[in-house]
Structures are given as structure tokens and as C-alpha cells.
Amino acid sequence: MEGHIKSELAKGIATITFFHPQSNSMPGFLLRQLAEEINKAGAQESVKVIVLKSEGDKAFCAGASFDELISIKDLETGKKFFSGFAMVINAIRTAPKFVVARVQGKAVGGGVGIAAAADYTLALDTALVKLSELAVGIGPFVVGPAVERKIGTSAFTSLSMNATEWRTAEWAKEKGLYVDVFKTAAEMDLAIASLADKLSNSNPEAMAMLKKAFWSGTENWDTLLIERAEMSGKLVLSEFTINAITKFKAKA
User: Fold this and answer.
1) CA 188 to CA 40: how far, in whole Å?
2) N or C: which end of the chain has fewer CB within 10 A?
3) Which CATH topology does 4-185 take?
4) Domain boundaries, the chain
């Protein structure tokens, strides 16, 4: 049970931080905790805006925990695991507060999904992205709707199919995943602090209405993402995927 989620509230700004020693990869229990913290902040009247970040200065989020993936032996367990990312994305989507994401390093798979689900994402120029799911025998089914919504079908298709190639932070900015890219963490943090301060002093009712408008057309995601989780849960049981993940872990 390594890793943790931390929440802090100051001047209307809720900062939610996640951490796991393996490049901020996310096991199921951490994903559920993260979703709970986002839901809690969204329901709290004193919270005006949510800032989502991870610890460390390297990877923002390496996606799913490979140790947990390789341990999945039945469909229900697989569905439950992948539902963790669905819960996080849906928590961001349904929170009546804007979610600002701080991406300080590489984002892989589910990490790209979290960056895409946030309403406003700022990143360092070292924050490369990759949807590696196909390379290990599955696909970006759960995060797909969030990523495609943010960067469009063409970019999502190329990112999904070329599953071993890193795309630069500038590429991610051009496609709309990142609003802006910075050379230093200090510059990025200053921009986040400035934006969060402005939002914390904005009309909460107006922001909640805007948030709902931004996400119009995604009302079916509560069921859609769980259906997608079942697709991934089924694939992770296949011999092809088990062998692919085992080889990937051996190289890591």
C-alpha cells in the first residue's frame, strides 16, 4: 500500500497531490482515494478552485501500476482496477469547480487521461506524453473519451496507434492538451498561483455553470467509462497481454 494522496485548502484553493514511488504510477487504491478527494473538494463550499498535482520532479503520472496489472486474474478484478481511472476522470468532470492540473514531467497512459480531463492544464517543457496501452496489449479505452475530447480524433488516433513514441510538450500544447508550457517549475507555479487566485475570487455560481457547459454532451460518461473499463479488464487477462506486460516489466 505504497503511495499517498494529500489535500490542502488555503484561500479557497484546494490543492490535491498524489504520489507513488514508482514514477507516480497509480494502483487501484490510490485512484479511488484520488477520486474521493476530488469529489470531497467539489462538494465543499469553501473550495473555489481545485489544483491537481503530483510529487517529485520527474514523472507526472506513469499510468497504471504494472505490478497490479500483472496480478489481475479475473474479469471483475480487471474491471474494478480500470474503473479507478474512470472514477478519477468522472470526479473531475462532475466537480462543480474548475480543476487546474500541474504537469511537471512525463505523462503516460492514465496520466495523459488525467491531464486531459483537467479543465486547464499547465506543463513543463519536459512533460512528454505517450499512450502506451497498445504496446502492452490493451488500449486507451477508459482515458480515450477525455483525451479525444481535448485534442481531437486525429491526434488521439495517432497517439493511440504509435504507442511507443513520446510526443513533446510543445506537441501537446499545439493539440490543446496543455494550455501553456514553461521552462522552469518556478514559472509554471507562478502562473498556476496567479490563475488559481483569480478563480478563487470569481463568482462560484458562474464558474459552476461554465463548468457544466464545458462538459455538455458527456453526461453518459458514468456508464461509458465503466463499460470501457470492462473492455480493458477483459484484454488484460489475455495471454498476449500477460506476455507483453511481463516483457515490459523485465525491461524496466
Assistant:
1) 26
2) N
3) 2-enoyl-CoA Hydratase; Chain A, domain 1 (3.90.226)
4) 4-185
pLDDT over threshold 80, residue 252: no
d(CA 106, CA 124): 9
Residue 68 has pLDDT above 80, yes or no: yes
pLDDT digits (tens, 9 = 90+) for 15-52: 999 999 999 999 999 999 999 999 999 999 999 999 99
How far apart are the C-alpha atoms of 209 and 221, rounded to whole Å?
A: 19
* 3-class SS of residue 103: strand
CA distance 249 to 77: 20
Question: Which residue has cell 511507443?
Answer: 164
Q: How many CA atoms lie within 13 A of 50 on its CB side?
A: 30
Residue 54: burial class (beta carbons within 10 Å; 0-12, 13-18, 19+)? buried
56 conformational bin, left if phi > 0, alpha if psi -120 to 50, beta if neither? left
* Radius of gyration, CA atoms only, the chain: 17
135-151 pLDDT per residue, tens: 999 999 999 999 999 99
Residue 134 per-residue DSSP state: G
**DSSP per residue, 139-155:** --TTTHHHHHHHH-HHH
pLDDT given at position 242? 86
Residue 65 pLDDT: 84
Name the pTM for this structure.
0.95
CA separation for the pair 114, 108 (Å, rounded): 10
pLDDT of residue 87: 97
pLDDT in tens, 106-119: 999 999 999 999 99
